[in-house]
Amino acid sequence: MPKYFILDTNVLLHNSKAVTSFADNVVVLPMTVIEELDKFKKNNDELGRNARNVIRTLDSLRTLGSLGEGVPMDNGGMLKITVEKEEMPNSCIDLTIPDNLIIATAYNLKQQGFRSIFVTKDINARLKADALGIEVMDFEQEKADFDTLYQGWREMVVPSATVDSFYQTEILAMDTADLRFNEFILLRDETNPKHSGIARAVDAAHVKHLSTTFDTAWRVKPRSKEQRMALELLLDPEVDLVTLIGQAGTGKTLLALAAGLTTTLNDERYEKLLVSRPVIPLGRDIGYLPGTKDEKMKLWMQPIFDNLSYLMSLLHNGDEQETTQQMVARLIKDDNVELEALTYIRGRSISKQYVVVDEAQNLTPHEVKTIISRVGEGTKMVLTGDPQQIDNPYLDSSSNGLTYTVERLKGRQGCGHVTLTKSERSRLSSLAAEYL
User: Fold this and answer.
1) Strand 153-158 vs strand 196-201: parallel, antiparallel, or unpaired?
2) In whole angstroms, what is the distance from residue 332 CA to residue 100 CA?
3) Residue 71 belongs to what H/E stretch?
């Protein structure tokens, strides 16, 4: 017997291809879902685009028969739009609420003897459906297991002779053949743990030394091995995409900005440093804030200003003729640094720039794909974030765009990742991260 998957609206807004993601089963869209899609279709954002794509898909399927009776799809499954009146056994269920109407569809199909599965990214909706005895699930496609996520580096206990050989040769052949491009290996002597070295994989079986030219950026020196690994990727022009994951205070944003300033202003490898972040939880509009666009942006980009001010203060050397705030303002005025909302990055073609996207854990996999696809020739992109601090109500540590990107691009040539674990912001910050 085929399964009946009843999709919530948020699933379609999350991924417009969801209707074709359930193989040879029956996908059911209650009329309430169609009405909710209609409310989003005029939006000039990712939700609006996904709503329009779903509507176009449904319209193309309409030519194959009656959507009310069910039409076949290319994957062997069937799509059906239900229009019958929904009924629930308990009067405490308010059927004027759209979510409850969608749940009612799943309940009625279950009562008719079908294997009914309610698919939603809304945790509360899953709780209500489960309480009614309905099988529930999150939309699993474009998901990565955060608990087993690729860390970007690993430790290997090796004989003392291997560590000696590593320091004596430029490239060392390893017995293992499962190394990934740009993966870091901490080689540790099995007899003397302090006798160690950090290597970087160049292919599946060979490693090399870290470059001495990548050990500092904008007078910022790494305080941990993970930060040193991150600088190696951030400063290397051969690495086009860098992902950094870490809790607050691990230095991921500061290192990315320091590397961006160094390669843009000192090395003149890029034309400018472009910094962006989601301006609100879903990366949407900033229109409700008072003031001009730049005044609105300053409020949302304050964490970036804080980091830039710190980096510029490193150049002071006791000279107080120009404050750090004035130095940051001059960088922006001279177009060396550009701060932009993600809302305005879509549709652009970004060439010869160093791009930092902060708080990327609040983006969906499709949004990250859209942003990365904006990259033109000679551009380097850095995605930073903490998947354990997500504001998007329909994303979690495993389904957000940053985690998904790490998992899908691990080991790809031109890509690199490091997970930072130790807070370096301050002693108090470290205590808060560990115990609060």
Assistant:
1) unpaired
2) 50
3) strand 71-72
| pTM, 2 dp | 0.83
Residue 242 has phi, psi (to 5 degrees) of: -120, 130
Query: Do the domain assignments include residue 194?
Result: no
3-state class of 217 per DSSP?
strand
266 and 406 in a single domain? The answer is yes
Tokens of 17: 């291809």
Short-list 364, 372, 253, 367, CA closest to 301 = 253
Pair (240, 353) in one structural domain: yes
The answer to whether residue 109 is domain-embedded is yes
The verdict on residue 172 lying in a domain is: no
Give 22-78 pLDDT, tens digit per residue: 988 999 999 999 999 999 998 877 888 899 999 999 999 999 999 999 999 998 999
**Phi-psi domain of 96 (left: phi exceeds 0; alpha: psi -120 through 50; beta: other):** alpha
Strand partners, 245: 385, 419
Question: Among 219, 197, 223, which Cα is nearest to 210's?
Answer: 197
C-alpha–C-alpha distance, residues 78 and 2, integer Å: 10
Instruction: Specify the length of the chain in residues.
Output: 436
Range of the domain at 234: 223-435
Q: Check whether residue 243 and residue 381 sit in a common domain.
A: yes
Nearby residues of 305 by Cβ (< 8 Å), 6 or more positions away: 298, 328
CA distance 377 to 259: 19
The domain that holds 11 is classified in CATH as: 3.40.50.1010
Indicate the number of domains in the chain. Answer: 2
Cα–Cα–Cα angle for 141, 363, 42, rounded to 5 degrees = 90
Give per-residue pLDDT as tens, 261-307. Answer: 999 999 999 999 999 988 654 344 555 556 666 666 667 788 888 99
